[in-house]
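Contributing new records

If you add data, match the layout below exactly. Sequence lines come first and carry their own label; structure lines follow with theirs. Keep one chain per record. Anything else will be rejected by the validation script.
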Amino acid sequence: MFHRRKREVDWGWWEETMATVAAMGGWGAEARCDDDAGREEAELEAKAEEEAKADWPKTLGQAKQHPVYVLRRHLRRNQCLVAAPTFLGKFVGREPLFLRREVQDLRSAKGWERVGRKVVEGEAGRPRVPEEADAGRGGEASSGPAKAKPALYSEDQTEAWRCEEVPSRSVLCPPLVQKLPDGLVHLPDATPKVMLALKAEGVVGEFALAVVGFARRGGRSVPEHRGVVCRQRDARQARHAHLELEFKLAEEARRKRLRQAAAGWRRVLGLLVKRRELRGRYLDGEKAKAGEGGAACRETPAMTMATAEVEEL
């Protein structure tokens, strides 16, 4: 921009730069370019989807890997079609094709609870894939008596699960579950001891241990606890009261340490005083007597006993 001298502006360069910016559409051209790129990408995706729809599968192998269409035989055990799937009028052999976006994942009632949802009362479970059909797809048919399996439900048969009370003495928490039910809160820093004291004072209601994992100990799988789970309406009071009680317990522990230190120092001072008394009573007295008599200071049994007591102190 600067030419020859330091403060001499190169107006030719400036005009060329401004002309280039104007040709690109102005100073906001970069944002508009991003919008154009996003729109172009969406158009390409729509075009690819239309091409995939036009190229419908002709064989079972193509239908199994097709991104748009699916056969009922290719559904997994925990999948099903919507109640009224779209009839496309296309067949592979004698089996009709359906849209893959109309496939729903199925879960048991406990499985939906792990993601924060609950099965609506009165809903019936969706039919499972028959064992014979699953064996025909390459799976193994079960041998022996059939075991009772839990019913499976789709997402449209569930609703957001809201708990007003803690359901049990221990609750699974993330990462074991994706989401806690509405109305419950995980307090990872709270301890059961403090929560029991708060519950006795009436500050909080029921709570449960938070299970965050499992570990192998002694050949068994035991739960690992971290914090507690309480009601959402008790969470704020629980945090505040928990901090106050933690400070109170820390202050009591500090005072206990001070009392123990003071008692230890009193004991040390008492031992020093006792040592001085024993030294004056036995060692110094015997030496004085020996010096007055002019005889050599011999170690007496009393001096030996006093020396041993002093060494022990």
